[in-house]
Specification:
There is one protein chain. It contains 20 helices and five strands. The chain is mostly helical. It has a five-stranded mixed beta sheet with strand order 2-1-3-5-4, sandwiched between helices. Helix 7 packs antiparallel against helix 8. The termini are far apart.
Length: 475
């Protein structure tokens, strides 16, 4: 509950801190899907189940629906950091004190906000990416199973469900869970049976979703191109840099190195961390980076740093661990004071003016399209994906509007045809705005989605857009 309370405070601050500059159509699309047509996967893809849009579906107001989804995604990320902090305290720092678990969590959270770029804060917390929530569910399931205590049927069932949902949100987690289970099997004899069970559950969880995804149309995510290895690594390295604030990252590395050198001169300092686990974590992140730099889907998307999220968590651990050794070796009052200071510093790092959603650049850009759609009584929007769905999102406040672009609209075709039928039942031609795209492209989009020919309408659009309509008479 306390972690959830921290999320209640920090997630909206993250939205105001990074969202205005970086929010794009991928985020309001989640609300459009939630309210118009909820599918198993994101429209046009066969991965990353729509769990959060499903949970937000009972909320019929677009702005509130979007806020609920952003909070769930953001709280999932903060919850994952909390879980990571507990594991760090227990396994790396060898401490079972609750205060130390809280201290590791808050230190990791502070480190993330300190070294992450604004763009990375948006991507991991408020954009709607499932990496945090998927890791929390999968990690929670692993922690529940990987315990020396005897496991009840209820515990195994709850862990299996959590891991299954986590695997649906991100099937690539099977690679990380496999490594965790192998390490647990090798180093902790008392949990070897549990490690085998956890491995089986994670493979079933992720594998089942990979099989389900094969039944849906979508791109291939498992292809690796090894023809230009160094160019891929170089591209991934440069993209990874966009996820970090270089000045704070360098300062954190310097401080962490100084702490490590200080500890090395005092072998009997009082805390004996498992440095091997830190090395293993860094090694896994390095292998992940090298592997996915060669992935064809990742390369096609510019090696976006979100695909290398284990590197971000490894950096947080490596930078935080030496300082935690020093703090955990201090008396309780010092640790408690450090906890309060670090927790209070997190919102300080995120201070930004509070803004209305409509003032975000993405929504401000489409305000003129929204005004034209309302003036012309148009409920269809064609053109650039990046402008279509922000426009549709705002129009949905007053009744459903529909995008008819080529990337996502095919999955909503039944609703689009139903809307066209409703318009034509009144003896009118269905019309659509064409926004931020050449009119020829909009005409092709509309024809592809509806199966009918479209033309430029005689009536003009006054907001740097074009009005198109179905060419034949209403049916």
């Amino acid at each position: 509950m306390l972690v959830a309370l921290i999320a209640v405070v920090l997630v909206p601050m993250c939205l105001m801190y990074a969202g205005p500059a970086y929010m794009n159509a991928d985020t309001p699309l989640l609300t459009v899907m939630s309210l118009q047509r909820l599918t198993l996967f994101i429209w046009g893809q066969n991965r990353l189940i729509n769990l959060v849009p499903l949970l937000a579906r009972p909320v019929p107001w677009p702005d509130t629906n979007l806020a609920v989804q952003i909070f769930l995604f953001g709280a999932g990320f903060i919850g994952l950091v909390a879980l990571f902090g507990c594991i760090m305290a227990r396994l790396v720092m060898r401490s079972e004190r609750r205060l130390d678990a809280w201290l590791c969590f808050v230190a990791l959270l502070f480190t993330f906000f300190a070294i992450a770029s604004r763009y990375a804060v948006h991507v991991f917390v408020t954009e709607g990416q499932p990496y945090g929530l998927s890791g929390l569910l999968m990690g929670g399931g692993l922690v529940a199973v990987l315990r020396p205590a005897r496991l009840s049927a209820l515990t195994i069932t709850a862990a299996a469900v959590a891991m299954w949902l986590g695997g649906g949100l991100n099937p690539s987690l099977v690679l990380l869970t496999s490594v965790v289970c192998v390490i647990a099997f090798i180093f902790w004899r008392e949990v070897r049976r549990q490690a085998i069970l956890a491995f089986v559950l994670s493979v079933l969880a992720c594998g089942s979703w990979l099989l389900i995804g094969m039944r849906f149309p979508g791109p291939s995510y498992g292809e690796f191109a090894l023809t230009d290895v160094w160019a891929n690594l170089n591209g991934a390295w440069r993209s990874l840099g966009l996820g970090f604030a270089r000045g704070p990252l360098l300062a954190g590395a310097t401080l962490s190195t100084a702490a490590a050198l200080f500890i090395a001169t005092r072998p009997l300092f009082g805390v004996r961390p498992r440095w091997l686990l830190i090395v293993l974590c860094a090694g896994v992140a390095l292998v992940w980076f090298g592997l996915f730099a060669e992935n064809a889907w990742v390369a096609a998307n510019g090696w976006h740093f979100r695909y290398f999220y284990p590197v971000t968590f490894a950096a947080m651990l490596v930078l935080t661990a030496p300082i935690m050794v020093l703090l955990i070796g201090c008396r309780t009052s010092v640790r408690a004071a450090a906890l309060v200071v670090l927790l209070a510093a997190c919102p300080v790092l995120l201070v930004a003016p509070w803004r209305s959603l409509d003032s975000f650049p993405m929504f401000d850009h489409v305000a003129r399209f929204v005004a034209e759609a309302q003036r012309l009584d148009v409920s269809l929007v064609a053109g650039s994906y990046w402008s279509v769905y922000p426009t549709v999102f705002i129009l949905d406040r007053h009744g459903f509007a529909f995008g008819i672009e080529e990337d996502r609209a095919p999955s909503n075709r039944a609703n689009i045809l139903r809307e066209i039928g409703r318009i034509e039942s009144h003896g009118e031609r269905a019309r659509s705005l064409c926004v931020d795209a050449a009119v020829g492209r909009c005409l092709e989009q509309a024809k592809s989605i509806t199966g009918r020919a479209w033309r430029v309408a005689a009536q003009s659009c006054d907001a740097d857009c074009t009005l198109i309509e179905i060419a034949d008479a209403p049916r």
